[in-house]
Give the backbone structure.
Amino acid sequence: MGFTATKDKGGVMVIQVDGQLIVGNRQELKQLVQEAVDHGEKKFLVDFAKAGYIDSSGLGALVSISKKVREQGGELRLAGLNEDLRSLFELTKLDTLFAISDSAEKALIAF
Amino acid sequence: MTSPLRLVVRRTSDVDLPVEVSTRIPSVLDAVHESVEVLARHAFAGLPTSPECERLRNRLKTLLCEALANAIVYGHREDPAKFVAVRIEVETTLVRVHVTDEGPGFDPSAVRPPLDPADLEQETGRGLLMIQRLADDVSFNPQGNSICMTLRRP
């Protein structure tokens, strides 16, 4: 479980969520994004293609990092949500707050 | 985790699945993930690896995360001396998950999730809404310190 961050050739920080984004590891994600923002990174993609589940604390962490990125004039996109995960974003209306793409490839084109 | 989780697993001899898995979890948020994984592994040990069962597993894990985090943060104010009791009953058609804390309880009907456009940037308050969506049935005891979440098995 955890997060893998790589920088793509277009300068986007791609963060892969491996397993879950929940109350127990959300601080790790927040810290990772904060450090990248401090280093001047502006474009972020969080890819959920390998994620199993997200809880409400995980959603809260995404809200928090999206605010941070936006305050620095950056952009954060989400991708790879399966049907169950996507339905949680719709339920909480967070699908209106985030730019969500079907896949990481499509999200990278949209930056 | 500082101490290993002690589980009580009750089985009958003629089925693969346990009948009941129960434990007590210390009120430490860092302990939630491991507790959830261990509980789900034992409760669903005999379940096949079909996509439907994988979805059920993930729903169970999400529900456990939500209920445990609520109990620890709101019920116990993260006091590690207090314990959350979890009991999972596995039946042929459904799974029942009981999560009980030592706190004073709360009124679930008074919880308003942040759904207005102006409130969407709030970081908390979505847990109960998610529980109500992910479980097939949700009930509380009158005191409001014990939740029962029911999942229908595929």
In short: The first helix of chain A runs from residue 26 to 38.
